[in-house]
Write a structure and sequence with these properties.
The protein is of the alpha+beta class. The longest helix is centred in the middle third of the chain and has 30 residues.
């Protein structure tokens, strides 16, 4: 059984998006941040960091989004989404997957931390302009890497686009300008995928249950 522990519009959306692309059945366990469930003893026993996502496949427990989407692509033999290990496409996939986490999302995560995620006495509002600048620098690198391609590895969609696309959606939700024309059309292309509306509906339904 595949189980996703998450909350809408967080990094757990990368996992629900991937599972919808794969057409796999899964259980979605809402961890309601508004009710403090991420700090409950029950959830901390699953993810001691108190963050989402967490993911279970029977006895396997994983907590890092890039590791989870990569595992799922490998598990279900979807080399279109996660290229085969040892291939040049796999090397490029991992390059952009790590870029999504280590560069593109970092400015956004810094904004999140110093707006609401950290305890109030640890937040430094003066860091927010620097975090925005960091995100803009990463956008420029991503724009150069994407070039005229439809997707980051070329003509075909991959799970690296999930990791990058989610971070771009995150940036827009934070009202960050994305002025590069190729990134604007890339975002539109990603949003048009059926799996995006499917995962968003699944997550929204969890709030209404």
């Amino acid at each position: 059984m595949l189980t996703v522990y998450g909350y809408p519009q967080t990094r757990s959306s990368r996992i629900t998006w991937m599972l919808e692309e794969l057409g796999q059945d899964y259980t979605y366990e809402l961890i309601d941040f508004m009710k403090g469930q991420h700090k409950s003893a029950e959830y901390l026993a699953i993810n001691p960091g108190g963050k989402v996502p967490a993911f279970k496949d029977d006895e396997l427990l994983l907590t890092e989004s890039a590791a989870i989407v990569t595992y799922l692509g490998d598990k279900f033999g979807r080399h279109d989404l996660v290229p085969a290990a040892g291939s040049t496409d796999r090397a490029r996939y991992e390059q952009w997957a790590y870029f999504a986490l280590c560069e593109l999302e970092q400015g956004l995560w810094n904004m999140s931390k110093h707006r609401f995620a950290l305890p109030s006495d640890k937040r430094v509002k003066e860091l927010l302009p620097t975090a925005s600048w960091e995100f803009q620098q990463a956008l420029e690198l991503l724009s150069q890497g994407l070039g005229d391609n439809d997707y980051i590895l070329g003509d075909s969609f991959s799970a690296a686009d999930i990791l990058l696309g989610h971070s771009l959606f995150w940036g827009l939700s934070f009202k960050q300008p994305i002025e590069q024309k190729n990134l604007q059309t890339y975002i539109d292309r990603l949003r048009a995928r059926p799996a995006v509306s499917q995962y968003q509906a699944r997550e929204q339904a969890s709030l209404n249950a």
